[in-house]
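Predict structure. Input: SEP12 protein, 305 residues.
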Amino acid sequence: LTPGLAGCQLFGYVGIEAVLDQMRIKTMKMGFEFNIMVVGQSGLGKSTMVNTLFKSKVSRKASQPGQEERIPKTVQLQSITHVIEEKGVKMKLTVTDTPGFGDQINNENCWDPIIKYINEQYEKYLCEEILINRKRKIPDTRVHGCIYFIPPTGHWLRPLDLEFMRRLSKIVNVVPVIAKADTLTLEERAEFKQQIQEDLKAHAISVYPQEDFDQDLDDRALKDRIREKIPFAVVGADQEHQVNGKRVLGRKTKWGVIEVENLAHCEFPLLQDLLIRSHLQDLKDITHNVHYESYRVRQLNASNQ
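Output follows.
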């Protein structure tokens, strides 16, 4: 026997796996932060989709009942923060909406306020980080994921869509979705998705999950399966309906109920899995280790020069 193996047999159980329990208890006490941004033209169901994702009324519209909805002439960013608790786990969720994006006749540079806002959050975090007396836990307002809503035209991506994703994918995790996918037939949806994937590849636009950041072979295999499905064709709904004796979340039409959590009807469950159940921490890690890090290096180099 090798000395190492003999040592394992001699000492036996140590209890190192208890570290996981310690981390879980600490995280549950502290809670965690998650910040998402929704971008797209008015009427694509951004607010409804956010409410559907978290099964709570967390969108800007839901928090401002009774106010007349006016489309601003320029892009105005509005953030709202909620604390969501599920099975003892607390999450401070911030949703940033972008009313006015892409609604004008001339949409030149309409992404500038969004880029400015994202960089301002990086700057806030950097200012806190370089203080001599730092806080033990720096408040994190950085945007961890940007859900971009593509209109369900069934054709190629518009120049506005391409330019936005090209610019924003360099500073934030962009997750494109086909909005209101119930307006397309299954054949139109598959063809539109294929055209979008070709467009993104032709213009070298790297949306989340990015191939460059895959950690290992298992990670790559999982993310390859996700990349095949991007952009997700989604339908949002905030009302329940009775279907075969069960209450389901969906949209009622003359022909039946479109169930948002049924993969045969739409790909909303895939989006929810990606953003919350499987890759929420990965979104945060890439934001911190890649996007924020590149911003930090640029700023510190500029200040040194």
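The chain has one domain: 26-58+71-238+266-304.
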